[in-house]
Amino acid sequence: MSVSNWKHPAQPLAYQRQNAWERMDGEERNQAFLFSEDYKRFLDSAKTEREAVVSALALLKEAGFCPLEALPRLKPGDRVFAVNRNKALIIAVIGQSPPENGLNIIGAHIDSPRLDLKPQPLYEEEGLALFKTHYYGGIKKYQWLAIPLALHGVVVKSSGETVPVVIGERPGEPVFTISDLLPHLAKDQMEKKMADAVSGEGLNILAGGMPVAGGEVKERFKLAVLDQLNRLYGITEEDLISAELELVPAWTARDVGLDRSFVGGYGQDDRVCAYASLRAAIETVSPARTALTVLVDKEETGSNGNTGMNASFFANTVAEIASRCAPGYSDLLLRRMLAGSRALSADVNVGLDPNYTDVVEKMNTARLGGGVVLAKYTGSRGKYATNDAHAEMVAHVRQVFNKAGVIWQTGELGKVDQGGGGTIAHLMADYGMDVIDCGVALLGMHSPFEVASKADIYMAYKGYKAFLAG
């Protein structure tokens, strides 16, 4: 066809990236800012997976959800939840359609990279008391030096009593830190590769520097810290062996930028998607298909353990829901339910950073402010360990989002062979369901201070809500 005969088509031929702020009207912009205020409060209250579950349960109970075990029979409109060892959570809103027609599922994770205290962490050296740590998840170790850290977690005493611990969050409380080497003496350190400049065994926490009285007492600096812990929490050194104590940044989530268009804070991978999907679940009232929101632990270390996506908790809970919905429950019914389901793996993606454009391929990289991100595949190298969503599933989500006015974009995790990463998508797909990754783009992913656009956070919530209702 010659150029002179070309007519403008009814539908645009070329795809154009869109900026969410430019498409949102004043009311929707205001809603995005209000939503982010609630989100920041959630981030501050949920710096560990246990705290995320506690915060989520408070919102669910306020919204009228009840424990799954409290209802022997389920009917359309019922709203229930199930908790796994205080570290994972499944939320369900029973739909109008029979369960064998499948579910609409959103799965996010509530664990984040951090520093864990070792089982026997406390020692003293050269007049200082220190804690030994083991880092959790993928971190750049140097980013955790010379910043204020707070200690969060639980200690389970030999009596079975569980003692919650939080030190370093309230005004006036002491914080912890890992000292860095002064640049005046760092010649050899600065000649090393960044990955080698700080060793994993070198991430030792400054815990105290004042000895107990009595020069004849051994390990006086260590004992002084133990005395403080005993006074505060009634615990002994042996109790630390049965403890889960995590060091996280001591700062709060903050607005970033003069226009306050971003949220900066710790743990946005993946609590930004977890919170957006939690709010979407709470606001889902009468879905066509049963809506399931899954918040799991251990994603950052491979999704193993009995609180990760690999665990039987997911399938067991779906079986419990199915048996309460369908009198003729069977294992075959469960398999049909799962295979007929659709799921969003709600996890974050990389946002294009003008400072580091050489590690991404711009055409296929998400932008902050471009809306929620659809990622057909993750993985590394030749799409290793990916789900790689089918074209039909991608089209379905596009239709749902477009119909609901959700602003979305596509993304991938860096250039081919540059690196990569995985999500829980392939583990969900193992059940036979169709899955696509869908989340928020971040700058500084896995750093102690990640950055997300308020527009993208709001569009993730809006997209998850539309998906659950469909």
TrEMBL record:
Swiss-Prot/TrEMBL cofactor(s): Zn(2+)
InterPro entries: Peptidase_M18, Peptidase_M18_dom2
UniProt keyword annotations, A-Z: Aminopeptidase, Hydrolase, Metal-binding, Metalloprotease, Protease, Zinc
Molecular-function GO terms, alphabetical: aminopeptidase activity; metallopeptidase activity; zinc ion binding
Pfam families for the chain: Peptidase_M18
GO CC annotations, alphabetized: cytoplasm
Signal peptide: none
Record family assignment: Belongs to the peptidase M18 family.
Name under which the protein is recorded: M18 family aminopeptidase
